[in-house]
């Protein structure tokens, strides 16, 4: 059987139909605000309204042009990223450690308060020279890694190290307490605390004993609702693992990937 239309005429009709359909759809978009097409225009408006923050753009540029990658693995990073995404609001995020991943952490928390605590003043200057948008303070630690066993066995003999009396600001009696931090650290309630510093791989290094203890005190002294998310890196090392189990508590451990543990610590009240 022969085709009803010759090929040229068939193509003309098809093109005319497509053009007519396109004009019809365009007229619906222009003339009606209550048609079935409105959800599409609303979605477009929401996409167009999204404006990335300056720090997010800087982070994209930095990591797209740098061969230096963050210390944590992608799966470890995703744990913190997923928590920030689930909270879906600007957060107070305290990070022990300033380094190649700092711009990333700050960009994950747009509009929030992200503060970095670093032991080495010269390193702070080096990092902030390339990323002045970051906020960082220098910390003076009173401990050394080689004291870890003694601190763990003796802290119970100091009343102001015990959970019922432990505090941080000005607590020079408890050697594990970070007692001389900037007021901002004590005045804010931190939604997330990342412990990826100070150094803890040689005897004279400060070790993370004080950071772990102080994070636990901050979390348990929280007055607001909700838990404090505490992330501890390098739990493959003895000191990090032992002090985490002592002060952050296994029962609050909700997830572990690679060398990272994630705790959700409720207020003591």
UniProtKB/TrEMBL annotation:
Keywords attached to this entry: Membrane, Transmembrane, Transmembrane helix
GO cellular component, one term: Golgi membrane
Protein location: Golgi apparatus membrane
Keyword Transcription regulation in record: no
Keyword Transmembrane helix: yes
One Gene Ontology biological process: xylan biosynthetic process
InterPro entries, per database record: IRX15/GXM/AGM, SAM-dependent_MTases_sf
Transmembrane segments: 9-29
Pfam families attached to this UniProt entry: IRX15_IRX15L_GXM
Domain of life: Eukaryota
Topology versus the membrane: Single-pass membrane protein
Protein name (record): Glucuronoxylan 4-O-methyltransferase
Organism: Quillaja saponaria
């Amino acid at each position: 059987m022969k085709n009803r239309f010759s090929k040229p005429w068939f193509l003309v009709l098809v093109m005319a139909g497509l053009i007519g359909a396109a004009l019809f759809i365009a007229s619906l978009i222009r003339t009606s605000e209550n048609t079935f097409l409105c959800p599409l225009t609303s979605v477009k408006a929401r996409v167009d309204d999204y404006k990335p923050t300056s720090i997010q753009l800087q982070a994209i540029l930095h990591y797209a042009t740098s061969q230096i990658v963050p210390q944590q693995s992608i799966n470890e990073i995703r744990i913190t990223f997923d928590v920030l995404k689930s909270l879906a609001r600007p957060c107070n995020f305290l990070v022990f450690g300033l380094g190649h991943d700092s711009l990333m952490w700050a960009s994950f928390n747009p509009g929030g308060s992200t503060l970095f605590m670093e032991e080495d003043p010269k390193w702070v200057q080096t990092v902030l020279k390339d990323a002045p948008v970051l906020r960082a303070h220098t910390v003076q630690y009173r401990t050394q890694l080689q004291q870890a066993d003694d601190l763990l066995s003796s802290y119970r003999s100091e009343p102001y190290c015990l959970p019922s009396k432990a505090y941080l600001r000005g607590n020079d009696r408890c050697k594990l307490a970070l007692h001389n931090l900037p007021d901002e650290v004590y005045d804010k309630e931190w939604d997330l605390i990342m412990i990826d510093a100070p150094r803890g791989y040689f005897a004279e290094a400060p070790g993370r004993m004080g950071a772990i203890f102080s994070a636990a005190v901050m979390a348990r002294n929280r007055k607001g609702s909700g838990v404090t998310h505490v992330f501890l890196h390098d739990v493959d090392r003895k000191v990090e693992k032992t002090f985490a189990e002592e002060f952050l508590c296994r029962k609050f451990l909700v997830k572990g990937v690679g060398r990272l543990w994630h705790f959700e610590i409720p207020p003591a009240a």
